[in-house]
Design a protein that fits this description.
The protein is an alpha+beta fold. The protein is about 55% helix and about 15% strand. The protein has a 5-stranded antiparallel sheet.
């Protein structure tokens, strides 16, 4: 019995040493991270465990109210973007590209791009890899049952998922994030 007790004590001591070592090595790195990073990854992990799909876990999804057409939603998005000082910079009607390639009709899928060039410049000055987030895109998608949805990347991972952004970039990027979400929610309800 004393052999088992001593073995368990040794295992406990080794576990404490491992935790202490990890803390000493990781704590300085984590102190530079954004204070919201734990919550962002908890939400991501929860959605990932629920859906089993990282693509679903990292996206915002807003259902469009019944009765709104694709033209209504697009006009609403453009109007709401203008009111929030975001430029509409492009549209990629994917469903038309599929028809051009296959000759077959495809359900409505359209990618709309919005940009705040000043914030984009700040992002690029901070880190070139942030170009992959630009311009901000919202997908207008008709699902397989014919219901319209708006999808966009959850920008919280970029804002809070690692080391703290510089204060000015954080403030401006947060404004863009809030604008994108407001555009999606407003357009899904047909607001102008």
């Amino acid at each position: 019995m004393s052999l088992i007790r001593n073995l368990l004590a040794l295992i406990g001591l080794l576990a404490l040493l491992a935790v202490g070592y990890a803390y000493v090595r990781v704590a300085p790195v984590l102190s530079e991270f954004d204070e919201g990073f734990v919550g962002v990854y908890q939400e991501f992990a929860s959605r990932l465990l629920t859906t089993g799909d990282p693509g679903v876990a990292m996206m915002w999804a807003v259902p469009v109210e019944e009765g709104l057409s694709t033209d209504d939603v697009i006009a609403s998005m453009k109007s709401l973007a203008t009111g929030r000082e975001l430029l509409f910079v492009g549209e990629s009607p994917f469903y038309q590209q599929i028809k051009a390639i296959t000759g077959e009709d495809y359900r409505y899928v359209n990618f709309l791009s919005f940009c705040d060039a000043r914030v984009g410049k700040q992002m690029l000055e901070y880190r070139d890899q942030y170009s992959g987030f630009m311009p901000c895109r919202i997908a207008l998608v008709e699902d397989k049952e014919g219901k319209l949805w708006l999808y966009s990347m959850n920008m919280d991972l970029m804002l809070h998922g690692g080391k703290r952004l510089p204060d000015d970039l954080m403030a401006d990027a947060t404004r863009v994030r809030d604008s994108m979400l407001a555009i999606m929610q407003g357009a899904a309800a047909g607001e102008f």
